[in-house]
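Format notes (please read before filing issues)

Several people have asked whether sequences and structure tokens are stored in separate files. They are not. Every record keeps both together, in the order shown below: the sequence lines, then the token lines. Line labels are part of the format and must not be stripped during preprocessing.
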Amino acid sequence: MDERLIQHDVIVFDVGNVLVHFDPVKIAKGFGLSDALFKGVFESGLWSWIDTGLMTTGELARLMCEAAHSTSREDYLKVSYLLENFDQMMCPYTGSLLLPELKQAGKRLYYLTNYSTPVFERTMARFPLFKYFDGGVVSSRVHAIKPMPRIYEILCEQYGFKPQDAVFIDDNADNIAAAKKLGFAVWQFAGEPIESKEQEGRD
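Then the structure lines:
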């Protein structure tokens, strides 16, 4: 076990690309996006709005289509459907393999994630890995997203621990930097989808 995990009683996990795989290219292919729509959805800077809980999927889909220079009704419906169902293209990630041992060791486990509420609820229902957690904070429920300091503070306040008591695990460098500034021990995670590892074993 990593020394940082041994030394701290509280372990805080990001979800996307730590516990489950979030791959924009795979998602775009699965939902049949054109190159222009891919840019409008994933490269326009608009995606984070879905995580704030401050905009409907319809409003966001319209803005993404505008960013892609599309006025097509078909494109709008396609983007709207993707925003509401992109979890269908996810699989477990190697960070999830840490959970059973950490739980057995008596660690307090929490998630801190940028996610839309309905998609997160389906993700929780789909992946048994969430049974190991003592709780967590979802950005769309508190209208704050990483790397804003407030979302980290909400987690600590809600579950009664100090940043110095915890390790924060995330794949995103900006989120890691924000957590470190607040006093968390940090681990910038680099893993891989478990699906691909299983596929390698079958080849």
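For reference, the curators noted about this record: The first strand starts at residue 10 and ends at 13. Residues 189 and 198 are 20 Å apart (CA to CA).
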